[in-house]
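Thread: Newbie trying to understand structure tokens

Hi all, I'm a second-year student working on a class project, and my supervisor (Dr. K.) asked me to get a predicted structure for one chain before our next meeting. I've only ever worked with sequences, so writing a 3D structure as a token string is new to me. If someone could post the tokens and maybe explain what I'm looking at, I'd be very grateful. Here's the chain:
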Amino acid sequence: MTALPITKRVSNAENVQELLPAQQRISYVELQDRKIQAAVHRYDDYADANPDYVGWLTLEDTMIDGPVVQSQLDGNGYWEYLYKDFEGNDKFSGTLFMDKACALGPNPTDNWMIYGHNMNDGSMFGTLKYYRSEEFWEQHPTFTFTTRSSVETFEILGVVQSWVSDEPEGQFEYFFFFDADDAYEFQEFVRQVQENSLYDTGVSAEYGDQLITLSTCDSWHEEGRLAVIGRRKNEKESQ
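---
Reply by user tm_fold:
Sure, no problem. This is what the structure looks like when written as tokens:
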């Protein structure tokens, strides 16, 4: 009979992990990587079902919890998902979609722009308006965007209202910002977000930070828009 390995007794103050063979132990970093991979692969069925799938957007305590696509079509295909569902069927509410001017990687644009209809039933970006309330933001200062390869946490930089016009009247046209030519242009955009925000979130951003903008129509103006702009937290900040 093969003798069983001898193990020592440990007190409650000792680390139980010391009893595990070294090859079975995993580091904190490895544990976090496993969690990230599990979260990413949770949406594999969506990635397999539609090659336009780029990620999953989740804002806690809203109805925003669904897939984001990015059309690969040229020309008018830019608006392919404005009135089509994830499967490509005609649907007035459409699907959350990323602007074709945006790139996720390996050389991402400075700002990822995601659009969605402001639906009366709360679907798509119908509950984005919750963020008009500073109290709601205080309870929900971050949200997540899970791409095909990572889980990104964004803290809210600002919440702004603007409008679209062929003849701009000095409004903040956030919807034209995708990539900055230099640090000055990036910081100027951040300054305008903070200056036009409905309230001060205390969050800023530096050139090189990843931004994301969630944009929808807003009834406060005939061509009104509402946007929640976020700054990605780095790995150390997210721990």
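A couple of things are worth pointing out once you decode it. Confidence is low (pLDDT under 50) at residues 1-22. The longest helix spans residues 28-41. Feel free to ask follow-ups in this thread.
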